[in-house]
Amino acid sequence: MRSLINVFDLSKEEVGALLDTADDIIANPAKYATACHGKKIATLFFEPSTRTRLSFEAAMLELGGQVLGFEAGGNSSSSKGESVADTARVVSCYADIIAMRHPLAGSAYVASKNASIPVINAGDGSHSHPTQTLADLCTIRRHKHKFDGLTVGFCGDLKYGRTVHSLIQALSRYTGIKIVLISPKELRLPEYVKNETIKANGMEYYETESMTEVIGELDVLYMTRIQHERFASEEEYLRLKDSYVLDMAKMELAKSDLIVLHPLPRVNEISTAVDKDPRACYFEQVLNAKYMRMALILKLLAERDCEAPAEEGEYRTDLVCDNKGCIVTTEQELPHLFRKGVDGKYRCLYCEHRE
Ligand SMILES: [Zn+2]
């Protein structure tokens, strides 16, 4: 049985096949209308994310299946009492597939190890949200018909932006991609993402603080929100805030076939005037996320009887994960396990926190 915890759980070929399935669903929705008849998805949302939950539920309903589940209120303690492992075991008796959102990194992995049905990670803390990345890839390919050779700009908070790190990782499998990183100094892409993803794969990249300087070169512009409190000071915020707002004046400098993406929700980093521009693809991205979730549900249910790929690697059991956002902090009797990475350093199996 297969689950999807990280986007790299899928091979490049499998990602390509999911993109093909999504294209086919878009072209022939009737063909899929009863594909999951009699099947149920359980949406287990230990923290609120109404848009993501509705997307998974709409995906299953459009496949002719049914949905059940819960969404916890603002604080995750409403789930207090039962472990993720036990919840996964129990829900396996009620549903055919799980989509799970949880505030702690590694929670979906723990669920997948205890469920007897496939688990889709719908966001585990600051760690991973693979179906968002699949939606990003889907939107790029539907417009550009390829990934190789694209110049992709990322603008906003590149330090904490989980969706940015995941998309750069996903793009690192293709050739000739140029990455342009646009952010204030204090919100630059972390060194480990540069070293382990961009440099390790020989991707060309360029860092700048100015969107206007580079927007004309881009094929894809991925915008993210900069939270006010991320700036070093109020003066710094006031000085920089408009440089990272995409408006029509900046769009006039861009290519006619640029596409603009944003994981949403948007606050004010894209002017609403841009919404009417045909290059604005962020609402289409929401729709594509639903189609990619449909494709993924079909794939995981079809492969339910397949063996999960073996988890290879060298492990250490003598290290302790001190990441407060890791599932080892709350899950009873979960052993601390660190797996050796390609760089020889060990990372927490659940949250990828470094030794
Ligand atoms: Zn950890």
Secondary structure: elements and pairs:
Layout: H1 12-27, E1 40-45, H2 50-62, E2 66-71, H3 84-91, E3 97-102, H4 107-114, E4 119-124, H5 130-144, E5 151-155, H6 162-171, E6 178-182, H7 191-199, E7 204-208, H8 211-214, E8 220-223, H9 234-240, H10 248-251, E9 259-261, H11 282-302, E10 315-316, E11 338-340, E12 346-348
Parallel strand pairs: 1-2, 1-3, 3-4, 5-6, 5-8, 6-7, 8-9
Antiparallel strand pairs: 10-11, 11-12
The protein binds zinc ion.
State the share of residues found in helices, binned by percent.
25-40%
Helix count from the secondary structure assignment: 11
Biggest β-sheet: strands ordered side by side in the sheet: 7-6-5-8-9
Q: Class by helix and strand content?
A: alpha/beta
Radius of gyration: 20 Å
Largest sheet: 5 strands, parallel
Q: Summarize this, please?
A:
It is built from eleven helices and twelve strands. By secondary structure, it is α/β, with parallel strands linked by helices.
Task: Explain what this protein looks like in three dimensions.
The chain has three domains: 7-129 and 287-302, Rossmann fold (3-Layer(aba) Sandwich); 131-285, Rossmann fold; 314-355, SH3 type barrels, CATH 2.30.30. 32% of the residues lie in helices and 15% in strands. It contains eleven helices and twelve strands. It has helices at residues 12-27, 50-62, 84-91, 107-114, 130-144, 162-171, 191-199, 211-214, 234-240, 248-251, 282-302; strands at residues 40-45, 66-71, 97-102, 119-124, 151-155, 178-182, 204-208, 220-223, 259-261, 315-316, 338-340, 346-348. The model has no long low-confidence stretch (mean pLDDT 93). Bound molecules: zinc ion. Zinc ion (ZN) binds next to loops.
